[in-house]
Amino acid sequence: MSQHSSTSESGRHFLQQHQTLTRRYFLQLGAAGATAFSCSPLSAVDPEREKSLQQAIAEIESWLTSPADFRDVSRGKPVPHSLSEEIRKEVGLTRDSWKLEVISDPEHPARLRSPLTKEEGTALDFSGLMKLAETRSVRFPKVMTCLNIGCPLGMGIWEGVPLRDVVWQSKPVKDLRRVFYYGFHNHDEKQMFRSSLPVGRILEDPFDLPPVILCYKLNGQWLSPERGGPVRMVVPEAYGFKSIKWLTTVVLSNLATANDTYEKGNNDLDSPLKTFAATLSVPETIRPETPFAVTEYAQAGISGLQKVQVQILPRDEQQLSEEGDASEAMWRDAEILPPPAEWGGGLPGNVIPAPTLGFTASGQPKTWPLLLSKAHWAILLPGLPAGQYILRSRTIDKNGAAQPMPRPFQKSGHAAIEQIDFRVGS
Question: Most distant CA pair in the chain: distance in Å?
Answer without folding.
Answer: 80
